[in-house]
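Please check the following for our workbook:

***
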Amino acid sequence: MMTSEDRGYPLLIAVVVTGMTTYMLYPLLTVQLLKLGFSAADAGLILGVLSGVGPLCSSLCGTVMSKIGAKPVAVAGLALRACGLAVFATNATLFVYLVCSAAASLGSSSASLAVKTELMRRATSRRMVTLRSMAVNSGALVGPAIGAGLFALLGFRRLVLVSIALYALLALLMILLRFSPPEDEQAKVSPEDVSAGRDEREQRRKKLFSRDSAFPILLVLTFVYWTVYAQWSLVVPIGSYAGFHTQTASNAIYMGNAVFILILQYPLLVHTLGKVKDTTILLLGFASFVIAFGALLAPSGALQIVAFAVAFSLSELLISPTLDLLTGRIRVAGSMLSRAYGWTGTFSGVASLVGSWLGGWLIDVCRGISGVPLFCLPLVACALLLIVLFKKKEPSL
């Protein structure tokens, strides 16, 4: 008999295709913007908008999704993503790039939030969360390889058009998938039941953000993680180009990141660390960030960027799925899941915007990626202290 977790596999395939389409472009985008004459700070701002504006609106998106359902949000999001990315096939001003990047980001975040919430409604387990993360990284593995090949054959602008076509096709295919009904479905209930339901949801919301709840701490940890994570899209292309002297070197680093995570994530999280508490896994992940950004203080070169990528990838495979899992486990009730993921998405969006812009500014000021650790290492230290506090509030996690 097929379980609810088994019925999530088609959605995991959609996650793979989405990741593949995204990472066809991302390894090449930073250097392409620099070639067009943008400064590193401007490029960082564009990348920050592209990755951050959508998540910034996730709390609103989660509220809408709880009312109309995940399926229309996913389909509309993918269509909007395709439209927004079209700007990278043209020469435009910074303002136009920012507006279209914001649209693409909103579309991507909406679709991602819809699929993630649907998966978690079917099974809130470390296995499902890890499988979703592996699906993302499967796309991240295949995407850069395809992107590098198409870039060599077609050039960057035609590569953008291929990516747009794949997003549009995926939007059409998602229409055929089955999603759960809206969480706030109130069909065939009396006005008294509707009023009671509203009161109950308000009580849950207050409890989620109460003094005794660990959820606010989790939101701050989410902010720190995505601020630090935003440096990847700046450090890897610039560091790879400086160390290997070729634009497509960053594709190889992106692929190595995906292979590393795919090989280690499931056996490490599900088996080796299967009985280890989630908060301990977070500690290990943020500790690995110390090694990653410490490597950027060493002399520049190919070895430096490889060391950074390995330690950073270890942090990613430990932290990213664990934050999603903790969000699902500390929510008050199932009807709060869309809103809980919406709030964490909003905090990740703010972090991506701040992290990308500030990282690009520091690269300009310090004339290289050695400036990035100046604010990442103190943030990581704060995260380690917050995890200790989180452990005290939720000793079972």
